[in-house]
Specification:
Blueprint lengths: L1 H18 L11 H5 L9 E7 L4 H14 L3 E8 L1 H10 L4 E4 L5 H5 L2 E16 L5 H7 L1 E2 H9 L6 H5 L9 E5 L4 H9 L11 E3 L2 H10 L3 E6 H4 L11 E2 L3 E2 L15 H9 L8 E9 L4 H10 L17 H11 L1
Parallel strand pairs: 1-2, 1-3, 5-10, 6-7, 6-8
Antiparallel strand pairs: 3-11, 4-8, 4-9, 4-11
């Protein structure tokens, strides 16, 4: 039944796209004409996608599942960051750009057309070898403290973070050198406005940033949910720690602020207990309103494709959000 539903939705979209320009109103079509109407051709072609590392793992799943239904559709999916996804989409280098941040007015003026397809979040990360790890696990790190580490640079030692001035180990702050949605969302949460407001050593790409922080006991950085939590085990990637974000400023890492596995993090994002920013919607961008094969694929993502989000560590859209996105591509 599920396979039939998937086929029906995508076929219906394709049929309407192919025939809408020349179809007669239903009431003017005779039974004989209806029987002789040409069959809808199977979907086929190639869809190029690039962009946000945050959405890349999910896009590979969507592409694989869609191809099972439509074997004549091929995909070319690449990462590279939200900035690359937007640039490629606007330049026509790809059909779809993955953008893990809000779409800017200047991008819309250039033809960027976007729909939200899922939700996830950016999390702070430190090394499991951090010299004051026990204190951080117990107390968490406040939003104000993140501001002084990443934006103003006032906080320079780990002793200052945990209220132990006798500890003088300096903090090594890491950020992304490539344009990315994670950087922009972390900057906004930390009290900045854009990614360039973040202080720190620039590292190109999300995998490299995570690896750099893990290997540096004095390091701190940020990363997307699916780079922080291992999709196989559901636990935090080995060598990393996700410190609690002390939202209520009580100086403690409360149970709903400290996430030990993927399920806890996803639940917090879905229920909005984890703040936004750094929680955010993930968007797909096209140059102008999507049509044809690309429209059919995005429509499938917003309907039957939503079923794969949970198992991959993403938050599905609510029915209202799903309907809103679908309405944008009709």
């Amino acid at each position: 039944m599920q396979k039939f539903t998937l086929f029906f939705i995508t076929t219906l979209v394709a049929f309407s796209l192919l025939l809408s320009a020349c179809a007669s109103p239903a009431e003017n079509v005779s039974p004989a004409e209806a029987e002789s109407a040409p069959a809808v051709e199977p979907l086929k072609g190639t869809i190029g996608v690039s962009g946000a590392f945050a959405l890349y793992p999910m896009m590979t799943v969507w592409a694989e599942e869609f191809q099972k239904i439509h074997p004549d559709v091929q995909f070319d999916v690449q990462g590279g960051g939200a900035g690359k996804g937007m640039t490629d989409a606007l330049a026509g280098a790809v059909d779809i750009g993955m953008v893990s941040r809000a779409i800017k007015d200047e991008e819309i003026s250039q033809g960027a057309y976007w729909v939200a397809v899922t939700k996830d979040a950016v999390f702070p990360i430190i090394s499991a070898e951090n010299p004051v790890l026990a204190d951080i696990v117990a107390k968490g790190i406040s939003q104000e403290m993140f501001n002084k580490i990443f934006i103003t640079g006032e906080i320079k030692t780990w002793g200052e973070v945990v209220g132990k001035p006798e500890i003088t180990d300096e903090i090594n702050v890491y950020t992304r050198s490539d344009s990315c949605g994670a950087g922009e969302m972390w900057a906004k949460f930390s009290g900045g406005k854009v990614q360039d407001d973040l202080k720190g050593i620039g590292v190109n790409g999300e995998p490299a940033l995570v690896d750099t922080v893990i290997k540096d006991p004095m390091g701190i950085g940020f990363s997307n949910l699916n780079s922080v939590f291992d999709l196989g085990s559901g636990g935090i990637v080995p060598g990393a720690i996700v410190p609690a974000v002390d939202i209520n400023k009580n100086g403690l890492a409360d149970a709903d602020e400290y996430f030990k596995n993927k399920d806890e993090a996803v639940s917090a994002v879905a229920s909005s207990k984890y703040p936004s920013p750094p929680a955010r919607f993930e968007n797909l961008v096209t140059k102008g309103k999507p049509s044809g094969l690309v429209q059919a694929f995005i429509a499938w993502i917003l309907t039957d494709g939503q079923q794969y989000l949970g198992q991959a560590g993403y938050v599905p859209l609510t029915p209202e959000q799903q309907a809103e996105s679908l309405a944008k591509i009709k």
